[in-house]
Design goal:
- A hairpin with a 2-residue loop joins strand 3 and strand 4.
- This protein is an alpha+beta fold.
- The model has no long low-confidence stretch (mean pLDDT 92).
- The chain has 3 helices and 4 strands; from the N terminus they run αβαβαββ.
- It has one domain: 2-Layer Sandwich (Translation Initiation Factor IF3), CATH 3.30.110.
- The chain has a 4-stranded mixed β-sheet with strand order 1-2-4-3, sandwiched between helices.
């Protein structure tokens, strides 16, 4: 994905509400299934990483992208944005 598309997706993501939350259990199979479903429906998903997540936030974002076969657009604070 080129820089122009990433900037466009970041701009779109500002208006999105968080639709998934990753808690102390981390990235579970159920969460991955729901993330994949939401990505198929809307193409862009915002995920909140709760403070109880023990892994590094960037690493958690990369793991979410890997399990959902998506692209990690950005991790800002405790929020990750993924795109199909």
């Amino acid at each position: 994905m080129d820089a122009k598309n990433i900037r466009r997706l970041k701009k779109e993501a500002q208006a999105l509400k968080v639709t998934l939350h990753v808690g102390k259990d981390g990235v579970t199979e159920e969460l991955a299934t729901e993330l994949t479903r939401q990505l198929k429906k809307s193409g862009l998903v915002k995920v909140r990483l709760r403070p109880s997540v023990e892994t590094d936030r960037d690493e958690a974002g990369r793991e979410l992208a890997q399990v959902s076969s998506s692209t990690l657009v950005e991790v800002r604070g405790r929020t990750a944005v993924l795109s199909r």
